[in-house]
Amino acid sequence: MAGDSKSTESIRLRGHRGGVIAMHRAFAHYRLGPINLLTAFSLFLFFSAIWVLLLPRLCRFWSDLLAFGLRFLPLHARLEIVSHHFRFLHLETPTLRMDPALPDFGIWFGSCAATLLLFAATFLLSRKLLPIAYLLRAVLAVQATALIYFLLSPSRFPHTPESYLEALLTSGIGIITIVPLLFALTYYIFDFGLLRKAFLTSLTMAHLSLFLPVQVLLQALVLQKSVLFMPLLYIIFGIPLEVLLIVAFYSWGMTWSFRSTRSLESRL
Fold first, then answer.
1. Residue ranges per domain, the chain?
2. pTM of the entire structure?
């Protein structure tokens, strides 16, 4: 019986080609000790406090950046400031105001033709690009539902570019706010060293802070043509895009060498 259990255990640790399945590097170096816990909690408090202190100034920077975009981009909108009052924080976030434009026949037909052509083109991709083909089909399916909706009842669409862009900015602020908490639970617990943890958090929050107003401007340029594209912008290119950016930075940070590995290499 003991021999059978050892044989079963050895088979469980081997792949279908007979090779040994090694433990993932993250779990191999996972040490949830008091130092890592203290570091995670301290970094979370530090970056959360810095973010709250800098957020009012960042909102003013966003206002200047949006005003700069309105000046040089072919965007017919006006900049307004919206006040938000919290218990200990007062924010004046910028937003863009524009009149909603329902799709006319030309925009609807052009979008429908482009959607059908792109959907047909996905079947021409090679098998190596099959994941990209499925991704494009999913994106086109979202646009197809918008086309059907605006064909049947365009006047009943409840959202406006103003409300959407304001929600996009405030949701983006919320996403950036929880970055320290996300990293505290999923990244700070690993032994990468204090400087690397702080660098990754700073870089992620700074990138998102610069990306958010650019995202608002680009989506406003699309929405001034028609609200037909709002579902696509919201489902594909809205908050999910910012979440993917956080995942990308996290994945990059997880490829860095652990502090224990670096110390061992220095000894060798």
1. 103-156
2. 0.83
